[in-house]
Inverse folding.
């Protein structure tokens, strides 16, 4: 199998679909032995009816995985077009956490139809999907699977090996094995997690030892309500392949595997990255989105920033007399507010990232403020020096050059202060700090920066 | 073990180190049963001599892992302070890819000392570290490990199980098993990879079947020279736990495991994210960096952007007469260039991300240009309408309001064009497209945008 050949596959499919009539056997040959991830990638670049045709040709064994890899829009489209029987059949072949993701992406009316069809096939699986969907999106509860190996603490190492060889073929991982103690809670059978064992520990241990002697009892666990990004950071920090999830009563509810976490990290990072550029993320590949989609994705932020930016007009009109008396003042407007915006963007980016990585907490607020103020003084001072010389070289009078230099220091300190405090406050108020994007800070600093500049000019130049 | 308690641990350690004399047994008690990742996180928040004291108290079994988790600066410090014997001893306990990473982070003179000490202990390991370090940083060759399970294609499933149970206890993963064919190449023994087998496949198969019947022959492989970010994207796309790495002759050189990939994804995403805010990434936690370090991290970009931004001064001086004849022209300067900058930032962020995710290629350049031009026309047109009304409401004459509206359309189209082409050209020229950061585009659009604005004003207002 050649990895990363989806691009080539897309072109080949495209040319087949340009034929009239389409030679289905040729499409079938082309898709044979292709990895589901490549097929999904190619489908997303095709016209929708062609993507549907591909989906109907792919055999059932891979079609479920293809569905799992597609973006939500395409899933909704396919689920709406294909028969609910086939989709339910495909869902049943997927790990239940992935199946739940597909159901979650379907339209509300499709959702209940899929669940009832799945229920006819495999009531236990339908029940699991329903339970997963009862947890909030973006939490550990939505990502977990209950297909993992459970061992009793009373087994020996040899017996554990036998148990693994006869484990449900659907288990998601054999790398981590969970040792549980069954508990009767009302009429539900629950399990308390008492230890974890890696297959490697089992391999190293003598066959006749009890697994309770071999297992680790100090466990890293998360709750069904833990945020998915925190789960990802824990898996990254502790280098594990899976984390057990406990329900609200402390019983073992499922496990989360590293493959889901890798997807989340990429998705959340993309979201944060785009937000920094004031673009809403919508998980669709760039080229598959129409111009109107792109406009929708960007116009909201652009308009909000535009309206905020009109504040600069108020400030400038307020200082109209000063400007007409010294037109040269206006030469430095873009330079001052541009530099203030850049300094603010640097600070807000650094602080937002440090918050996301858990390097900073709310209680560090004052410490951060003091650091950023000093950083602003140093950076502002250095840039002011350069600005002063630049202004003199342009033949600007010493007085005006001094105004520019002084304003530069004040604006950079101000940008650093605002840039450091806003993300921390946003987090404190329960917002994602990434909402305080760089363009937002830049716009905020523009109007206030101009106010400082012209106020300093009015005093120093006696305007 | 309680996850995420490093913060608390830091505070407890801090208060113990404030005592005089320090009660070492108390520190020892506190560190007992702590996860290496938590100890590393706490050490990074302590003063360096205290971090060293902690490092010397941690038992050898966990100290290697602690070293692996620390940031490069701290590693250099510890390697310089502790005895080379102890460090070599710790390295020997780590997987060799992690050991190589620690050696790579040491100073050049420390590096050869460590390698010779490691050579005295375990010549084969030292040889492996040397080989890993011979590959370029950021490539698959630097990340791979040769501690994995190799099976001969002639084994039965039953025999394979026995082989796994007697495998080297240092193997990094038992989840994927590699089926190899030994080849004599001159006086080196090489291995050709012929198949891969998951432990799960083995569990499901009948004990007397040959593993050549069970294994998968269609392999996803990377080369020692593959970029680490591409490796990460492949692991993400194909949901695998490990990828085999082939050397330049096509023989099996090692495997890369998903845990290293999770670290890379986070690191590279942080780098891209910070660069979007014009900050150099240096992998150090925010609070552990001094003010001077922060200034160094930001001043270069800030100065470069400052110098580029002085171009706006040239443009404004060029139009000095126009401004003094119509001071109201200057009221719209920040609004126009601010909006142009925001539109450019949106485009450059979207395109850079699409390039990083492999959704766009160089050959899509013209298609992207045409899409972004249309997007710019729509967005510019809508904002121009809002801007026109806003200007009229301020009592600006219809003529000037028209100049502002027209300039808005031109500037937004221009910003979208520049923002879409620059990242694609950067990639074509072999640069990381993320270098064309949002602040860079913003600055570029500022001066050119002003030129458009005043040229339009000169013509329409007959100035």
């Amino acid at each position: 199998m050649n990895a990363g050949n989806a691009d080539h596959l897309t072109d080949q499919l495209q040319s087949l679909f340009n034929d009239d009539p389409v030679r289905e056997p040729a499409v079938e040959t082309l898709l044979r032995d292709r990895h589901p991830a490549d097929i999904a990638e190619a489908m997303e670049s095709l016209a929708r009816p062609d993507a549907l045709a591909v989906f109907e040709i792919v055999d059932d064994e891979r079609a479920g995985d293809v569905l799992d890899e597609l973006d939500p829009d395409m899933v909704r489209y396919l689920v709406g077009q294909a028969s609910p029987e086939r989709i339910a059949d495909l869902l049943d072949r997927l790990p239940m956490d992935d199946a739940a993701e597909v159901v979650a992406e379907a339209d509300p009316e499709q959702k209940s139809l899929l669940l009832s069809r799945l229920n006819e096939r495999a009531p236990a699986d339908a029940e699991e999907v329903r339970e997963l969907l009862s947890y909030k999106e973006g939490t550990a509860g939505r990502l977990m699977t209950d297909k993992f190996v459970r061992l009793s603490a009373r087994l020996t190492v040899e017996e554990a090996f036998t148990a693994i060889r006869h484990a449900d073929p659907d288990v998601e991982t054999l790398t981590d094995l969970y040792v549980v103690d069954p508990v009767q809670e009302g009429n539900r059978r629950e399990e308390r997690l008492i230890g974890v064992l890696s297959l490697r520990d089992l391999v190293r241990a003598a066959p006749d030892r009890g697994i309770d002697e071999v297992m680790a009892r100090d466990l890293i666990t998360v709750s069904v309500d833990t945020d998915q990004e925190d789960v990802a950071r824990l898996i990254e920090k502790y280098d594990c392949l899976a984390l057990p999830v406990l329900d609200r009563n402390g019983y073992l509810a499922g496990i989360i595997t590293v493959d889901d976490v890798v997807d989340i990290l990429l998705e959340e990072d993309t979201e944060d990255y785009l937000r920094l550029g004031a673009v809403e993320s919508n998980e669709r590949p760039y080229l598959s989105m129409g111009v109107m989609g792109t406009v929708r994705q960007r116009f909201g932020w652009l308009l909000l920033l535009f309206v905020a930016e009109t504040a600069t007009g108020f400030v400038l009109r307020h200082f109209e007399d000063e400007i007409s008396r010294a037109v040269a003042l206006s030469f430095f407007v873009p330079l001052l507010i541009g530099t203030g915006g850049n300094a603010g963007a640097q600070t807000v980016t650094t602080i937002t990232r440090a918050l996301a990585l858990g390097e900073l907490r709310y209680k560090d607020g004052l410490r951060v403020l003091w650091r950023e103020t000093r950083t602003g003084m140093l950076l502002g001072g250095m840039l002011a020096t350069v600005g002063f010389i630049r202004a003199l070289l342009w033949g600007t009078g010493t007085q005006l050059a001094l105004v520019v230099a002084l304003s530069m220091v004040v604006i950079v300190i101000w940008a650093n202060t605002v840039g450091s405090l806003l993300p921390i406050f946003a987090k404190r108020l329960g917002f994602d700090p990434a909402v305080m994007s760089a363009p937002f800070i830049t716009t905020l600093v523009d109007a206030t920066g101009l106010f400082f500049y012209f106020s300093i000019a009015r005093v120093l130049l006696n305007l």
Notes: Chain A touches chain B through 121 residues (CB under 8 Å). The mean pLDDT of chain A is 86. The longest strand of chain A covers residues 188-198.
